[in-house]
Amino acid sequence: MTELTTFGSLVLREPTMDDLKRHFEIFGDAEAAVHASSGPVADKDDSRRKLQTIKDHWWRYGFGHWAVSTVDDPEFVIGFGGLAYRQINVEERFNLRFRLAREAWGKGYAHELGLASFHMAFQQLEAEAVHAIVRPENAKVIEALEQLHMSLSETVKDLPDLPPSLVYAITAAEARAAGY
Fold first, then answer.
1. Which region holds residue 166: left if phi is over 0, alpha if psi is between -120 and 50, else beta?
2. What is the pLDDT of residues 18-68, one digit of tens each?
3. CA gyration radius, the chain
4. Which of 40, 145, 165, 178 sits CB 3.0–4.6 Å from 149 for a disulfide?
């Protein structure tokens, strides 16, 4: 059994391959992926590969994206996200990423997941900064990042034939000043 962590109204745990069906439901949802640079997963095999990548990160570093549920229904996964290392403009950085099921949108879960990620980054991993990559047309996620006191720091050319994605960041000092 994977260790569970609660943070606010969220239950956070390392994903398992038992999460494959729910991972595919969330990552295969074209509407939930409309602004995601990776788009929706093509099929269950694609979802399995992405879930294995999350598991490999956990194995290698001891942390990674969580399977996210709520304290009210800890067995039902509402999304996946958290911190993982990612190359951004040729530098490996702590990257905040999340994908929530549509039924979890608008309930403050992205904000809580961001706060949990900051707690891990700044208090446990002693990170200097946390970054997040977002497509410029994704106004809802940009708003969520700004509510977390993250600010636009640079751009990254991560998709061919499209404008660069935006990179938002918060430093450890900025997080402390925000009370995180």
1. beta
2. 999 999 999 999 887 777 777 788 899 999 999 999 999 999 999 999 999
3. 15
4. 178
Provide DSSP, 88-141.
ETTEEEEEEEEEE-GGGTTSSHHHHHHHHHHIIIIIIS--SEEEEEE-TT-HHH
- The answer to whether the CB of 25 falls within 8 A of the CB of 104 is no
Given a cut of 50, the residues of the chain with pLDDT beneath it are 1-2
Overall residue count recorded for the chain in this entry: 180
Q: Structure pTM?
A: 0.93
